[in-house]
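Student: I would love a firmer grasp of how sequence relates to backbone shape in proteins. I am handing you a single protein, as its sequence and its fold in token form. I am told such tokens are a discrete way to write the fold. I hope you can help me see how the letters and the tokens relate. Take your time, and here it is.
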Amino acid sequence: MARKRKGREISGIIVIDKPSGMTSNAVLQKVKWLYQAQKAGHTGALDPIATGVLPICLGEATKFSQRLLDSDKRYVTRVQLGESRDTADVEGEVLATAALPVLTPEKIEAALAKYRGEITQVPPMYSALKHEGKKLYELAREGVAFDIQKKARQVTIHQLTLLDYGKDYLELDVTCSKGTYIRSLAEDVAKALDTLGYVAVLRRLGAGPYQADMMMTINELEALKPEGSEDYSSMDNRLLPTYTALESVPIIQVSLDQARDLQFGRAIKALDAGDKPLPQVQLRLCHDQQEYLVGFGEMDAQGVVALKRLVKVPELAALLS
């Protein structure tokens, strides 16, 4: 008999404004503890110095965290010019210095233009990528030489805009694909300006469908539940529905009977099917003005839907029993 998980069966997504100096995992564990949730996961780590959008998935929402990990991200960053650092950010040791170029909007734009679209990027040494089974940042902290051959990778910079600049810095707005290292981008842009550079400030403004105006701080979340209280309602009300993680996925509405069939693993015929197959669909049930995510699946050209992932939450289970 399976051991019962400790904690509450709570599901949804909370968007935290990650503070600087705190790891993403520390934020995750704090949020999980505040909600007393059975399961929790984040959707891609931010560097410790970074702040901003960190969606935390609770309960059944963790089934879709990989989709958010694969989503585009948006950042604002301040690139400090004239120095390189071993971590490629403000926390590292200075490796070298270089003369500052005379900056003009035209010169900066010419440098930025080289890094828009699909580019090849070499990850920084201080990263979670692995070399022979060990993370690069662990090797770096052990003093392993920095000449390990790191594999270049293809990433896409959808937007790269200059917000401000001074004699020794740039402020940039970046929208990019998964796997993009802003620290590497900062170094590359500085190199294109014939100098060195590193990330001094990094703030994430968006991750997939989750934007900065949805965030709250850990302190704000903690204040919603008085110490010693067992009333989680104010905190629970701040959770975004699990289906928000599937924003770009077509919706198929199902009936109560169809939702029951899906719970038992049976394929159904979509009520509002078109004449084209859909490799991804989200299945929703509307009942008494409440909307539930039943699952995630695929639909063939005949409108037959097969389930790939089932969502199990107490409220839906009670409705279908």
About this structure: Residues 134-142 have pLDDT under 50 and may be disordered.
